[in-house]
Predict the structure.
Amino acid sequence: VQLQASGGGLVQPGGSLRLSCAASGFTLDDYAIGWFRQASGKVREGVSWISNSDPSVYYADSVKGRFTISRDNAKNTVYLQMNSLKPEDTAVYYCATSSENVGSYYPPSRLLPALYDYWGQGTQVTVSS
């Protein structure tokens, strides 16, 4: 199981970025995916989650209404569209999946990093003027 996050960069406040999480070695549509971020000196936090079917989605309060998670199973890729970016969104962003059925957990718990055991390399997002 390999995941690779990409699409980060430097953007001004109020700008947008779209992150991609590409899977290799497995079929992504069998797995739920979570997006996480870790700012310098802070703990890793969950941002958004999408189920492997339906699809059901969930967002952290800090990004609700600004970020949109989606998946394209034909391309084996999950996306995180980030709009109205703020300086506090600056972090390394990671995608991850789990061998557990994370969808069975109470929704806020689906963003707990400890539930995920397969992590991609992160992509840096910097929001600054």
In short: The chain has no helices and eleven strands. The chain has a mean pLDDT of 94. The CA atoms of residues 11 and 127 lie 5 Å apart.
